[in-house]
């Protein structure tokens, strides 16, 4: 592929090159923290020039987004396990919003873009079709009777996931003043989302 550098071991594909840059960025963040990580640091860690990094990622924000998405599966597993402790569809929906609002900002990697002041990039990532599909998968795997509330098709699950993720995003980026407690947030979401997920006769 004509790559320069890479510590003498050039990647065989573009996907592999991107993966190595993401791994280099993760190593930098782990070592010195987000605030002190620059695109030059990432390039040095990967053994390439800044120009090579730019070939795959237009900006540091794009790299941070890739780092966050690289760790999203672990987060999804934890969320799924948490939601599995609730017994009905409405409570699963409520808790998915509360979990996202409370946990994401303190996540070592998922909260990167928010901490970096890249809220717009974070918003694009959360409202992507990939994110909605992941949300749908999480909901589908939670052992509640979705059919009883009319959620049966892939389109249903993705639509519900999109609504919940947009709600989570709104509460996260534009918190109330004063900020809701967990119980207040639960009550608010339960009051207005719960009826849509009540078992149908």
UniProtKB/TrEMBL annotation:
The keyword DNA-binding applies. Keywords: DNA-binding, Transcription, Transcription regulation. Residues 38-57 bind DNA. Residues 15-75 form the HTH tetR-type domain. The keyword Transferase does not apply. InterPro entries: Homeodomain-like_sf, HTH-type_TetR-like_transc_reg, HTH_TetR. This is TetR family transcriptional regulator. It comes from Amycolatopsis decaplanina DSM 44594.
């Amino acid at each position: 592929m004509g790559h320069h550098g890479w510590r003498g071991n050039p990647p065989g594909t573009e996907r592999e090159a991107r993966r190595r840059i993401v791994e280099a960025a993760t190593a930098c963040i782990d070592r010195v923290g987000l605030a002190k990580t620059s695109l030059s640091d990432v390039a040095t860690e990967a053994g390439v020039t800044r120009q090579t990094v730019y070939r795959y990622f237009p900006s540091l924000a794009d790299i941070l987004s890739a780092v966050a998405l690289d760790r999203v599966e672990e987060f999804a597993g934890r969320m799924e396990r948490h939601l599995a402790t609730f017994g009905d569809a409405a409570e699963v929906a409520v808790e998915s919003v509360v979990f996202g609002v409370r946990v994401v900002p303190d996540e070592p990697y998922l909260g990167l873009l928010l901490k970096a002041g890249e809220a717009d990039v974070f918003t694009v990532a959360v409202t992507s079709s990939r994110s909605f599909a992941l949300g749908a998968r999480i909901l589908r795997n939670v052992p509640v009777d979705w059919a009883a509330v009319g959620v049966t098709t892939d389109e249903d699950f993705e639509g519900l996931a999109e609504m919940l993720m947009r709600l989570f995003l709104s509460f996260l980026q534009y918190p109330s003043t004063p900020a809701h407690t967990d119980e207040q947030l639960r009550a608010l979401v339960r009051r207005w989302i719960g009826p849509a997920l009540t078992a149908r006769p």
